């Protein structure tokens, strides 16, 4: 049946979905206004405040705050932790997504549930678990200390905590996309004699490259901004185990507001860069990314 022969009552519904749902323009206006007010009050205003306070005392004060030795150590440590945690989670996330999307095996549902564990456990609790396992009084702490290995209050503890809280991002972006693509292309390549690794690198990975980049982007943003788990395992040793979020807290607690906002502006800038890249991805590659959310 063509659109011209549709009953008159159905035509407005296709042109205006809100009318079919019985929503007036006033209701639409109220919903949009409430949403914009929420974004302005709880998201945009705090972000603007960070940059305004960071620049309140001029460029020299800002530069001094972010070039101060402890701030430089925090920035360097944050980059090191992210540089290790993000590639690790990328490799493991790809492997987990490939296994879940392309194969059937016993324990598959359990693996899927474990992927979501970091989302359901408080980061503070996860940090405490690492302390109970690897701390001086933990299950493995005495043995590690006897062999000269330090995990808690050291770089390995920060990496472990960051890996745990950021683990799901890459896998969770890839699994639905891989499932939506199916296995027809891979099976055809295998039939033609391609090796499994060649199939993976020439077919599977290129097909999900934008979802992969999207997952890496989110994973990196969370890794640099993580506070709860890192705060528990770091000991907050200034200049040694402080990441940028922890350094901001210390500066603010010491009533060094401008310096705290200066360092916080770097994290806020990271958030804006992440948002811009995310928007560009969704704009240019919306179809591919939308496919990763169909299931």
Number of domains: 2
Write down the CATH topology of the largest domain: MetI-like fold
Largest sheet: none
Q: Treating each run of at least 4 consecutive H or I residues as one helix, how many helices?
A: 18
Poorly predicted runs: 1-15
CATH homologous superfamily caption of the largest domain:
MetI-like
The count of strands amounts to 0
The CATH architecture of the largest domain can be given as: Orthogonal Bundle
Radius of gyration: 24 Å
Helix and strand run: HHHHHHHHHHHHHHHHHH
CATH class of the largest domain: Mainly Alpha
The average pLDDT value, as a whole number, equals 84
**Principal-axes shape call:** globular
Secondary structure category: mainly alpha
Distance between the termini: 31 Å
Please give the oligomerization state of what you see.
single chain
Keywords:
single chain, MetI-like fold, 18 helices, 295 residues, 2 domains, mainly alpha, 77% helix, disordered N terminus
Question: Describe it for me?
Answer:
- The protein has 295 residues and is mainly α.
- It folds into 2 domains: 24-54; 58-293, MetI-like (MetI-like fold), CATH 1.10.3720.
- The chain has 18 helices and no strands.
- It has helices spanning 10-15, 17-20, 25-54, 58-67, 69-102, 108-115, 117-120, 123-134, 141-146, 155-166, 168-181, 184-191, 196-207, 209-225, 228-234, 244-253, 257-284, 286-291.
- It is globular and about 65 Å long.
- 29% of the residues are buried.
């Amino acid at each position: 049946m063509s659109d011209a022969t549709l009953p008159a009552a159905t035509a407005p519904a296709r042109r205006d979905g809100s009318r079919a749902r019985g929503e007036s323009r006033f209701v639409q206006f109220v919903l949009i206004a409430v949403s914009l007010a929420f974004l302005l009050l709880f998201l945009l205003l705090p972000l603007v405040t960070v940059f305004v306070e960071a620049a309140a005392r001029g460029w020299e004060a800002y530069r001094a705050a972010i070039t101060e030795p402890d701030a430089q150590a925090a920035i360097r440590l944050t980059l090191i932790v992210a540089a290790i945690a993000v590639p690790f989670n990328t490799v493991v996330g790809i492997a987990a997504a490939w296994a879940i999307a392309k194969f059937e095996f016993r324990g598959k549902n359990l693996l899927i549930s474990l992927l979501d564990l970091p989302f359901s456990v408080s980061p503070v609790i996860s940090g405490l678990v690492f302390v109970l396992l690897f701390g001086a009084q933990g299950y493995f702490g005495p043995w590690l200390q006897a062999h000269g290995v330090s995990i808690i209050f050291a770089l390995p503890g920060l990496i472990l905590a960051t890996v745990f809280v950021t683990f799901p991002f890459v896998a969770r972006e890839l699994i639905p996309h891989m499932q939506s693509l199916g296995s027809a292309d891979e099976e055809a390549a295998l039939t033609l004699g391609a090796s499994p690794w060649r199939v993976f690198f020439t077919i599977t990975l290129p097909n999900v490259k934008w979802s992969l980049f999207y997952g890496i982007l989110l994973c990196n943003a969370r890794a640099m901004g993580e506070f709860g788990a890192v705060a528990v395992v770091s000991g907050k040793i200034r200049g040694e185990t402080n990441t940028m979020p922890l350094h901001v807290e210390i500066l603010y607690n010491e009533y060094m507001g401008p310096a705290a906002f200066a360092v916080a502006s770097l994290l806020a800038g990271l958030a804006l860069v992440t948002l811009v890249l995310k928007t560009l991805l969704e704009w240019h590659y919306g179809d591919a990314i939308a496919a990763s959310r169909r299931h």
